[in-house]
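Hallway conversation turned thread

IA: we were arguing at lunch whether anyone had actually written out Glycosyltransferase RgtA/B/C/D-like domain-containing protein end to end. Turns out nobody had. So, for the record, here is the sequence (383 residues) and right after it the C-alpha cells. Reply here if something looks off.
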Amino acid sequence: MTIVKLAFGLICLAILASNIVTMSRWSEARGVYDDICYLRQAHLFQRFGADGLNTDAARDDDRYFEGKMKQIGFAEGADPARWPCHNPMPSGKVVLQYPPGTGFLLALFPQGHQVVPLYVAASLIVCGLALSGIAMARTLPSVLSAGLFGALAVYLMINPAKASYSVAPTMALCALAGLLTALWLTRDRRSLLLIALIGLLLGASVNFRLPNALLAAGYFVFFGISFAWPRKFATLVQGLGFAAGVLVGIAPTLIAQAINAGSPLATTYGSADVVAPGFDLAVLGHYLHDMQFVLIVLAIGSTAWLLPNGEVRTRQVALLVAGNLLVNLIFFLTHPIFTPYYVVPIAMLSLWTVSFAWLMQPDHARQAAPLRSASARLGVLQR
C-alpha cells in the first residue's frame, strides 16, 4: 500500500509540475475583460492601499485601465461609460462590479507578474491537501479513491480554473473548508472555534465571487434542522459562531459595496447579471456537455454512497453536503447564464468534504461499510 501511496503522490506532483510549467507561459493580456478588471482592482490596492476598495472610474487618472484596454484592442477605453465589467451607480459613479478579494490577492505580487504566482500558490495548497488525503488513507480502496480524486483536483487548477482569476483562490478555500468541515463533524466534541473558522473561510470566498455566498447555505440548513430537533443550546451557539465567521469573512465585500454602491447590501452588478431564476433547456444542455456535469455526478454519487455506508457522524457530513448541493444546484441550474465554472466550487467543496470524512472514519467503521452493503444486497436478493 505504501508503494501505491507513493505512486499517487508522484502523479499529483507531476501534474502540479506540468501545471506550473503551463502557467508560467500565461499572458496577463489574453483579451479577456474579466482579467483586466481584476488587475485594475489589484492596481488600486497597490496604489492606494485599503482605499483601493473605492473603484470609481475617476480614479484612473494614471490611465492604467485605459492602457490595459488598448493592449487588447478595445477602442473605447477613454470613455468609462463603455468600460467592461463596470456599472453606473445611482450616485453617478462608474464602479467595478466584482468583489475585491481577487484583486487583493493579485496585489500581493509585483505588477506584470501577478496571475502566475496566484495560480501557483493556490495549486500548491490544493496539491498539499491532496497529498495529505493520500497519506491519511489506510486501506487500498481509500488510497485509490484519495489518489484519483487528488490527481483530478490538481488537474482542475488549470482547467476550468483558468477561465476566471476568481476560481483559483476559490478552489483552494473549498479544499481547506472541506477538510475542516469533515474534521468538525467527525470529532467526538464539535469545536466552536473550528466551525467559526469554517464560516470565516466560506465568508472570505464571497470576496472572490458573490455566488460563493451559496456555499454556506447548506450549513445554515444543517444548523436549522439540528436546532429544531432536538433543541440544544450548544447547537445554537455553534450556529451563531458559524454565522459570525461568515459575517467577518464577507466584511470586505460589504464595505466595498457601501463605498461603491452606497449600501453594504446594494449590488455593484448590472441588470444583466441580476436576473430572475427560470429553467432554460439551453443552459441545462450546456451543463450536460460540460466537465461540470461530471463533477456534479461525482459529488452526488459520493454523497449518496456515504449516507448508508458511513458511521453516524460521517452520515451527518453527508446530510450537510447533500443540503448544500441541493441549494446550490437549484440556484445554478435555474440561473439563465452559463459559464464553465459556476458549479465547480460547490462540487469541489462537496467532494473534498466527503473524501476527508471517509478518510477520518475509524478503521472499524470503514471496514464495516462493505459488510453493510453486502448484507443489504443479500437482503434484497432474499426478498
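OS: looked through it. Residues 1-25+114-158 form one domain.
IA: good, adding that to the notes. The chain has three domains: 1-25+114-158, 29-106, 165-373.
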